[in-house]
Amino acid sequence: MKLLRKAYYRLLPGQRSLVRRLVYLPSDILGSLTGNRPRLVPPRGKIFTGRGDFVAAGEAFLQNFIELCGLQPHHRVLDVGCGIGRVARPLSSYLSREGRYEGIDIVRSGIRWCSKHYRDHANFSFTHVSLQNDLYNPGSSSPADSFCFPCLDSDFDLVVLTSVFTHMQPAEVENYLAETARVLDRGGHCFATFFLITEKSEAFLDNSPRPFFAHRHGDYFLHDARVKNANIAYRMGFVQKMARQAGLRIKSCHEGWWSGSPREECLNFQDVMVFTR
């Protein structure tokens, strides 16, 4: 599995997309012919955001937003790294007409799919931004560490970043946290996932024969030394420092099962952090 993952990361984004589409082509054709694919669920070959069940993962995130962030139907939601609608789908039936959803992503194919299939949702919008990322968008020269979210100040009640900081370098994370604080309304929440290095998770890596994060660089660990945005873990203290500098307060933190914790006791594979402004 580790060798397959490394080989997969060596492929260019277009090549990875082609591999996914070929692997899932038979089941996607069958789903189209039978009409069994649920509404607003893309073909599996087009999904590039995480493993697992697309629908179940999205529904679980919605429950997290409600329970941990106090999300209400009239709230305004910014989904940074919206992918191909994993979070948008459950929100489309939860947010009222007074609510609003905006999704931004660097993968054009996901934005195109969502823009087409959410046309009936007037309060949903999707924006493509071409930022440099050596896993998803290596051809761009626009740096994420100076990117300004295309949003007004204090315009959202909830900012979501699922599996975004796990693919960003330190200066990029610092900028995105600052931008999150800028666009959050007073009392708003940010729901973000990380791979966090704590005493417990570092001990787990130390005791693993093949640690997932084998390349250590002080405050952050890399999964792949050649593809630096493949998977990145951050020391908890470093994230706390960046959050404070951005003007965000950590409300809660929930460890993921990536570092050996029992799955039934965790919210997600990745660690979850909830910030407030």
In short:
By secondary structure, the protein is of the alpha/beta class. The chain contains eight helices and eleven strands. It has helices at residues 2-10, 13-34, 54-69, 88-92, 108-117, 170-183, 199-206, 236-246, and strands at residues 76-80, 100-105, 124-128, 156-161, 184-194, 196-197, 215-217, 220-222, 232-235, 249-254, 271-276.
How would you characterize the overall build of this protein?
The chain has 277 residues and is of the alpha/beta class. It has one domain (48-276): Vaccinia Virus protein VP39 (Rossmann fold, 3-Layer(aba) Sandwich), CATH 3.40.50.150. 34% of the residues lie in helices and 21% in strands. The strands form two sheets. It has a seven-stranded mixed β-sheet, sandwiched between helices. Strands 6-9-8-7 form a four-stranded mixed β-sheet. Helix 5 links the parallel strand 2 (100-105) and strand 3 (124-128). Helix 6 (170-183) crosses helix 8. The protein is globular, with a radius of gyration of 18 Å. The termini are far apart. The model has no long low-confidence stretch (mean pLDDT 90).
Topology at a glance:
Elements lengths: L1 H9 L2 H22 L19 H16 L6 E5 L7 H5 L7 E6 L2 H10 L6 E5 L27 E6 L8 H14 E11 L1 E2 L1 H8 L8 E3 L2 E3 L9 E4 H11 L2 E6 L16 E6 L1
Parallel strand pairs: 1-2, 1-4, 2-3, 4-5, 6-9
Antiparallel strand pairs: 5-11, 7-8, 8-9, 10-11
Helix pairs in contact: 6-8
